[in-house]
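User: Fold this; tokens only.

Assistant: Input:
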Amino acid sequence: MVLFLIIANPGTYRIVGDIIGLDGYDDTRSYHRFYLLFIHSIVYVLLIYIVLSIYNPFTSTHKSKLGHNPKIMHNPRIIKN
């Protein structure tokens, strides 16, 4: 959430737009808004990828309670013909 708040902030759009020469962020007739949106979406995806590669909450060394239980999955009495 913090990353999104920083990247989606209009102030960040203005700063990046001034740096790369897309200063028409506030102009509704300009395509600079869409270019900045595209740039910020790519930056957001890259940052999320980096964060999830460093800390991935879906990988764990603990056994999941929802893990594979062979007695339940391969019980012939459960399979209906």
